[in-house]
Amino acid sequence: QVQLVQSGGGLVQPGGSLRLSCTASGFGLDRYTVGWFRQAPGKEREAVSCILTYDDKTYYADSVKGRITASRDNAKNTVYLEMNSLNPEDTGVYYCAAGPLLTQYFSPALCVRATFGTWGQGTQVTVSS
Fold first, then answer.
1. CA-to-CA distance for 16 and 104, rounded, in angstroms?
2. Using CA atoms, how far apart are residues 81 and 86, in angstroms rounded to an integer?
3. What is the pLDDT of residues 9-55, one digit of tens each?
4. Which of 5, 34, 61, 109 lies most in the core, judged by the most C-beta atoms within 10 Å?
5. What does the pLDDT read at residue 67?
6. How far apart are CA 107 and CA 91, in angstroms?
7. Does position 1 have pLDDT exceeding 90, yes or no?
8. How many CA atoms lie within 13 A of 16 on its CB side?
9. Using CA atoms in the order 47, 90, 11, 14, what is the torsion angle rounded to 10 degrees?
10. Which residues contact 107 (CB under 8 A, 6 or more apart)?
């Protein structure tokens, strides 16, 4: 069965850090584009970061650049989202997703919801004092 299982998340104070994990089963995540998205209450799901190429060139939304890092551990078939300097605007449900096969072309335009067909269950991140 093809699926993505997420872990991590929770409640953190402003300025704090969290790491989200996303583990694939039924397929090798290292061959596919991987995206992280988030959805705040009452808002559309938006892209946070996408790993887009064979050599892990990664797109980051302007709102998270310099604070959030996406990475993968192919041996564990897992991708991570390391989040630092969190602020209340980062609150939301975070989703990982797997999309098309990786290529050598860095195409940030692919980092949109419609690109991705397999989604994790989502995990809540709340940034609050």
1. 34
2. 13
3. 999 999 999 999 999 999 999 999 999 999 999 999 999 999 998 89
4. 34
5. 98
6. 27
7. no
8. 15
9. 150
10. 52
Rounded to an integer, what distance in angstroms lies between the CA atom of residue 28 and that of residue 124? 25
Separation in Å, CA 88 to CA 1, 43, 82, 98: 36, 15, 16, 27
Provide mean pLDDT across the span 1-15.
Answer: 96
* pLDDT category of residue 103 using cuts at 50, 70 and 90: confident
For 3-71, give the DSSP string: EEEEE--EEE-TT--EEEEEEEESS-GGGEEEEEEEE-TTS--EEEEEE-BTT--EEE-TTTTTTEEEE
Spatial neighbors of 77 by CB under 8 A, at least 6 apart, are 23, 24, 25, 28, 29, 30
Please give the single-letter amino acid code of residue 41. P
Can you read off the two tokens belonging to residue 8?
């991590």
Both tokens of 108, joined, read 């940030």
